[in-house]
């Protein structure tokens, strides 16, 4: 229930009031660690990071105009892979923000980087966790939207993005097979 509230709050109040962004800009979505985010060790549960990232991605696509394209074209995004590395724990009541940015494309998907950042009055902001997300855009009527069509409809240019070979290799290595083997097994 708490994630639903966060999502609605960001989509109705935070995103529309945030500054407009270009397709390649990063968004900064502000959050706080609530008691419902905690695990038994009294820090933010690792699964909550992924849920909060979802809210931050919607903030980005709302503010960079992509959400309007999705609605007009009857498309929607789905995560097909993600990896996250944790450096420090987020503790009860701490404020943090998530910086979200589209970092590039392969032939099937859009890649994003998301960073959990804590402000510090005495030092530069500190990255507590970083994630990479691979997402496909699907048609509500069925099928995957080709990246070329996404770029065309959003006005983005693939050459404006510089996706590292390491991230592309991760995306390739973590793909699941789309069919069963000849014996009908998925193993």
* Count of extended strands: 5
Unreliable stretches, pLDDT < 50, 5 or more residues? none
- Quote the distance from N terminus to C terminus: 36 Å
The side-by-side strand order for the widest beta sheet comes to: 1-3-4-5-2
Pfam families: 4HBT_2
Protein name: Thioesterase
Provide a descriptive summary of the structure in words.
With 187 residues, this protein is α+β, with helices and mostly antiparallel strands. Helix content is 32%, strand content 28%. The chain has helices at residues 2-17, 46-63, 66-73, 147-154, 165-173; strands at residues 26-32, 75-86, 95-105, 110-118, 126-139. The chain has a five-stranded antiparallel beta sheet with strand order 1-3-4-5-2. α1 runs parallel beside α2 (46-63). The N and C termini lie far apart (36 Å). The mean pLDDT is 89. Pfam families: 4HBT_2 (PF13279).
Fold topology:
Layout: H1 2-17, E1 26-32, H2 46-63, H3 66-73, E2 75-86, E3 95-105, E4 110-118, E5 126-139, H4 147-154, H5 165-173
Antiparallel strand pairs: 1-3, 2-5, 3-4, 4-5
Produce a short descriptive summary.
The chain has 187 residues and is of the alpha+beta class.
Keywords:
single chain; 187 residues; alpha+beta; 5 helices; globular; HotDog_dom_sf; Thioesterase
